[in-house]
Specification:
Layout lengths: L4 E5 L4 H12 L3 E8 L12 H15 L3 E5 L1 H17 L6 H22 L3 E3 L5 E2 L16 E2 L17 H4 L2 E2 L7 H10 L3 H4 L15 H5 L8 E5 L5 E5 L10 E2 L8 E7 L4 E6 L7 E7 L3 E2 L5 H6 L1 E7 L7 E7 L5 E10 L6 E6 L2 E11 L3 H4 L8
Parallel strand pairs: 1-2, 1-4, 2-3, 4-7, 8-12
Antiparallel strand pairs: 5-6, 6-19, 8-9, 10-11, 11-12, 13-17, 13-19, 14-19, 15-16, 15-18, 16-17, 18-19
Helix pairs in contact: 1-2, 1-6, 3-4
């Protein structure tokens, strides 16, 4: 496939800026496009969107490439944010970044660029690689494309890309996927973009801004008080203002208690939060969980189809080490995930992301947890 025209998503950050510079230096016709996904006029948060848009414009100006801005505020609200709120109301802890990549960046944005701008390929500043190569030099639609880990394992973002569709990935370049962050910053500096390379990296959820999460969520979900219940004694220790304010594994600030307590379970039917004494209490650890139907980026694993089981590496938080796991296919094409070692704070609503070697196979959302280590051995905790 001969590639001449590339649309590069420009976020205002160093990774996308370096990506655009690299593409232009290799002779491509590059068009920079900034996505507006959140409407600040309707929000009290201090998201840096306006500053990012200005930085994105300045990057394109410096590189002498066209700059375009497109709004997906409506799509983001309907396809990402409303889902985010709904799942918090049910007691789950969703991951809007995974959903944003799936429904906005690699669907709405991809389709907009395809229909309204035209391209041979799109590019983003994600730290990832594909089996088609950095410049899609081994493109072969008949074989399909595989998502691969980036060279910089600490910055690898395949976790957040684990739900993106095959058709978009086939035409996507990741120019910085084979580099370390330090090299990317050096490239930006050499392109005269030192201001961008020194810019502080964004962390957390943009639409929350700098506010405490519980203050933010209070604008969208009304308080719904319930008890903090001790996981062992079933004693009510205090009251909370809603299960949506807390996630499994999080420390609870319960007055008068000498021992720190952490969220072990949430029961939406009684609005109860069960808390455990100590950060390593066995009620915080589980070895099994259930998912909804998985999304496989390239194809279903052959052995999962043939034997209904396969071994993979797994994580549900992108910064955590990979863990060996066995996947078992259920009758409705969902998964039972069995881990070789108990894992702390597995959380419904989060994505279980699966790997084999360097390939990110895809992911599935956690919908139900198996018994905790405490419940598996509860008799040893009974005091007579």
């Amino acid at each position: 496939m001969k590639i001449k025209r590339v649309v590069c998503a420009i976020s205002g950050g160093v990774d996308s800026a370096a990506s655009a510079f690299l593409l232009k230096s290799r002779g491509y016709e590059v068009i920079g496009v900034f996505m507006k996904n959140w409407d600040l006029t309707d929000e009290k948060g201090q998201c840096t969107l306006a500053e990012d848009a200005e930085d994105a414009y300045n990057v394109c100006k410096k590189l002498s490439i066209p700059f375009k801005e497109v709004s997906f505020v409506k799509e983001y609200w309907n396809d990402v944010f409303l889902n985010f709120i709904k799942e918090y109301q049910t007691g789950w802890t969703p991951n809007p970044d995974v959903l944003c990549n799936k429904r906005i960046k690699f669907k709405a944005f991809f389709e907009h660029c395809q229909d309204k701008i035209g391209f041979d390929a799109v590019a983003t500043g994600h730290y990832a690689k594909t089996s088609f190569g950095e410049e899609l030099e081994t493109f072969d639609a008949s074989k399909g494309v595989r998502l691969l880990k980036s060279f910089d394992q600490l910055k690898d973002q395949t976790f957040f890309l684990s739900q993106i569709p095959q058709d978009a990935l086939q035409f996507t370049m990741f120019p910085v996927g084979g580099m370390t962050k330090n090299i990317v910053k050096e490239i930006a500096n050499s392109a005269g973009l030192s201001k961008i390379s020194q810019k502080k990296e964004s962390t957390g959820i943009c639409f929350v801004g700098k506010r405490h999460f519980q203050d933010f969520i209070a604008d969208y979900i009304l308080p719904n008080p319930g008890p903090f219940v001790h996981i062992e004694t079933k004693e009510v220790l205090a009251q909370h203002q809603g299960i949506h304010n807390w996630t499994i594994g999080q420390r609870c600030l319960i007055g008068g208690e000498k021992v720190r307590h952490f969220v072990a379970e949430k029961d939406p039917t009684t609005n109860s939060i069960f808390v455990a004494p100590g950060t390593d209490h066995p009620s915080l650890y589980r070895s099994t969980f259930f998912t909804d139907r998985p999304h496989w980026i390239h194809s279903w694993p052959r052995d999962l189809i043939e034997t209904q089981m396969t071994t993979v590496k797994f994580r549900f938080q992108h910064t955590k080490p990979l863990i060996d796991a066995v996947l078992t296919l259920t009758g409705n094409n969902q998964l039972i995930v069995s881990l070789v070692q108990p894992t702390r704070a597995l959380t419904p609503g989060q994505y279980a992301v699966f790997y084999k070697g360097e390939e990110c196979l895809g992911s599935a959302r956690i919908i139900k947890l198996g018994p905790s280590e405490y419940h598996m051995n509860y008799k040893s905790f009974i005091t007579i």
